[in-house]
Structures are given as structure tokens and as C-alpha cells.
Write a structure and sequence with these properties.
Helix content: 40-55%
CATH class of the largest domain: Mainly Alpha
Shape: globular
Radius of gyration: 25 Å
CATH topology of the largest domain: Hypothetical protein af1432
CATH architecture of the largest domain: Orthogonal Bundle
Distance between the termini: 56 Å
Number of strands: 9
Length: about 425
């Protein structure tokens, strides 16, 4: 049997093993990394001195255990048992073809139910138990550390009656992942995650016919919906135990840098960094979510649109958010491993490995017939600047490539000058 992921005691770890998963909360993780290769004795000592009891290692990326762990030996022995006399398989063995529980799906379902319970309590006028929120944020953070992309993707399909709950889970996951990328300390990460989970709690006071309307809201309905930040702030303020970050994010996650947001029309530096983070994560999840009545934007399309909304988001934070996602906006200029330039287009199953429409050979400084390339086969090396390569003709060249046409030779001369 070919073993890939093996669960071992942390005390049995060795230098050269690839840690795929650590059985601990994200606060107990001494490395602040989701997975990594143990390269030094110092890293090994940090792992062994931590409160982590068990880890899972990937034997395809590093060394395996010297002998199979006891649990795996018992499992192998059970698999080797013959059927019982009457032909039925032993009780301990999983029936062939029976579905294996997916930990990610279970985590998402558990989070959704907990958030739904919080909204029900708020809708009934009962005080929310903040004590139930922290373990939920820790659970989401742990899942994010293991596989942020899968967690976010797993919340994209939202039924009308569960959108608000799953959206809260997704925004929490996005904000936790972004906060870790920005280097926030553990306490701030937890507070930011709590803020993401509770940012829409004010929607508990919005009538169902508006909240679940399958279509565009009219002016009066939109006015009711826009009361949810203030309503949520009032709910959280009444509890008295909510962090200042959660209160701020709940009230201000719809504010915009240019002052055109609501409910207070704050502008520029008057909007806190946490609320700016929330605004980005909130919109990104909303526009990429699969809804019964609208086409979701692809991650590439969403980021391109968000970049185009001048004055909506903090531009520096939006750039950092894009870097953290590892997803390039639609139309972004990139250089491939083959030393060709191309623009990002839709069509890839994995948005971190996009389809790229190539059109220019860097070493020869010549245009090529456009070709749509799967970057899983020709990886993206880095993002490039169109104005550097093609000066003020870049918008024209971009339009040509998007239309599947070869740009003119004049632009190649400009690019050659850029190389020189």
C-alpha cells in the first residue's frame, strides 16, 4: 500500500519530514505556517517543545517514518482480514464505496450552523453569547491555515436561505487569512476574525422578504438594507463584551475611501484599517459567490473590477489582498516560464494557475500569434507592467490581444527599446 499522508506523534518527527498538518489550534502553532519541510534541528526542537501531540506528514514531499505508526499497522491488519464465515465483511471495515467524511465540508457546515444560531438569537431579541464565537473563529482559522483556498472555494455555492450565514463564514476566513499575511499578531488576528464573522449580524433585523429577495432591491428596500450596519453595531454594543475592532467593522464595512459609502460617509484615513480590510473581503466574497439569480464573477474578473472601482477600496490593501490570494486580475500582464508575455484570461479550474493568452517573445522582442496557454504546464514567473514594455500603446495592445489579434510591429519596436 502506497502511503502519502501519515499521522505520527510529534515526538517521532525527524529533520527532512514534510509537515502537512498539525493537530492544534492556530494559536498553538509555533511556526505560523500551514505546512513546511523540517530543515533544521532548531525547527524540530520547536515542534517537539510545543503542546502539539500529533502531526500528519506527507511522504511524497519528505522522508517517511522508519516504521509504520501503530494505528496504520492496525489498519493494515484489519484490511487483510478475510470476510467472516457468512460472507459479510468485518464490522470494523468501512464498506467499499461508502463516502469518506470531508473535514473541510464538515468544518464549513459546522461554522454555518453556529452562525445561523447566532442570527436566530439576535432575531429573537436575545443577547448573543460571545463566548461561542471565539472557538468558532479558532476553528475557521485552523481550517484556513490548512487550506485557505479550499475553505474560501467551499463557501462559494450559497443557497438563498443560507447566503448570509455562509457569507459571514467566508468573510471571516478571508479576513483571518489576510490578517496573517499582513503580519498581525495572534490577538489581532482573532479579533479580526470575530469581526468578519459578526460584520453582518445587523441583517438579523432585516425582513425576510428583503433579505432573501431573488432580484434587485428597489429604493425603499435598499434603504432598509442599508440600516444593517447601524443595527448590527447596536446589537454588539448592547452585549458589552465585543471588541472595539468588531464594533468598528460591523458599523463601517460599507464605507468607501472616497466618502461615497454608508452609513456615515467616512472618507480616507477616517476609515480604520480593519474596516478597509473588511470592505475588500466582503465585496470579494459577494461578487464571486454562486447565487440562484446571478452569474458569479470569476476570481480574475472580480479582482479586475475591484481595481477599476477607483475610490472604493484602499489601493495598497487591495494590492496586498491580491498578492495574498495568489490570483491575478483579468487582463493582468504576466511573464511565463517560457519567457513569453501574456494576459490572464478566464477558463482555468484553479485560479492561482490561470489560462494565459500569450502574444510576445521576450528574448526575440517579437510578437507571436496569440495562444491560450495553461499555466499549470508553463508556470507564471511574475507579474509585469504593460506601460514598461509598451509605453503608452499598452491599452491598444491589450485590446488587440483580448480580441485575439496580433498587435502591430511598431509596438514590438517599443518593447525592444524597453528591453534595451
Amino acid at each position: 500500500m502506497h502511503i502519502v499522508i501519515v499521522r505520527i506523534a510529534a515526538s517521532d518527527a525527524k529533520v527532512g519530514m514534510y509537515i502537512d498538518w498539525m493537530e492544534c489550534s492556530w494559536l498553538e502553532n509555533p511556526f505560523w505556517r500551514r505546512s513546511f519541510l523540517i530543515r533544521t534541528e532548531d525547527e524540530l526542537a520547536r515542534l517537539r517543545q510545543s503542546p502539539i501531540a500529533f502531526v500528519s506528514i506527507d511522504t511524497t514531499k519528505g522522508r517517511g517514518p522508519e516504521s509504520p505508526p501503530a494505528a496504520d499497522r492496525r489498519r493494515a491488519a484489519a484490511d487483510a482480514l478475510p470476510p467472516s464465515i457468512d460472507g459479510a465483511p468485518p464490522v470494523e471495515r468501512r464498506r467499499r464505496g461508502a463516502p469518506t467524511p470531508n473535514p473541510l465540508d464538515e468544518a464549513i457546515a459546522r461554522s454555518k450552523e453556529c452562525v445561523a444560531a447566532l442570527f436566530r438569537e439576535a432575531r429573537l431579541g436575545k443577547a448573543i453569547d460571545i463566548g461561542t464565537v471565539t472557538p468558532l473563529v479558532d476553528d475557521i482559522a485552523t481550517t484556513v491555515q490548512r487550506d485557505a483556498a479550499a475553505m474560501i472555494k467551499g463557501t462559494r455555492l450559497k443557497r438563498t436561505d443560507e447566503y448570509t450565514y455562509l457569507h459571514s463564514v467566508a468573510v471571516c476566513a478571508l479576513m483571518v487569512d489576510f490578517a496573517l499575511h499582513l503580519g498581525c499578531d495572534a490577538n489581532e488576528v482573532r479579533a479580526i476574525g470575530t469581526a468578519g464573522l459578526l460584520h453582518d449580524i445587523g441583517k438579523a433585523g432585516v425582513p425576510d422578504e428583503i433579505l432573501y429577495k431573488a432580484g434587485q432591491l428597489d429604493r425603499d428596500e435598499l434603504e432598509v438594507m442599508r440600516r444593517h450596519p447601524a443595527g448590527g453595531h447596536a446589537i454588539l454594543h448592547e452585549i458589552g463584551e465585543t471588541s472595539a475592532i468588531a464594533l468598528d467593522v460591523c458599523l463601517h464595512h460599507h464605507e468607501r475611501i472616497d466618502g461615497s459609502g454608508y452609513p456615515e460617509g467616512l472618507k480616507g484615513d477616517a476609515i480604520s484599517r480593519h474596516a478597509r480590510i473588511a470592505a475588500i473581503c466582503d465585496v470579494y466574497d459577494a461578487v464571486t459567490s454562486i447565487r440562484p439569480y446571478k452569474r458569479p464573477w470569476s476570481p480574475h474578473e472580480a479582482l479586475a473590477q475591484m481595481l477599476a472601482w477607483e475610490g472604493h477600496f484602499d489601493p495598497d490593501l487591495l494590492d496586498a489582498f491580491i498578492v495574498n490570494l495568489g490570483i491575478q486580475p483579468l487582463g493582468a500582464l504576466v511573464r511565463l516560464h517560457s519567457n513569453r508575455l501574456g494576459i490572464v484570461i478566464d477558463g482555468a479550474e484553479d485560479p492561482t494557475r490561470p489560462m494565459v493568452r500569450t502574444f510576445f517573445d521576450v528574448p526575440d522582442a517579437t510578437f507571436l500569434p496569440v495562444e491560450d496557454v495553461d499555466s499549470t504546464r508553463d508556470p507564471v514567473l511574475r507579474v509585469e507592467r504593460g506601460d514598461y514594455w509598451f509605453a503608452n500603446r499598452w491599452p491598444e495592445i491589450l485590446a488587440c490581444v483580448q480580441a485575439g489579434q496580433i498587435p502591430s510591429a511598431t509596438a514590438a519596436a517599443i518593447a525592444g527599446a524597453a528591453i534595451g
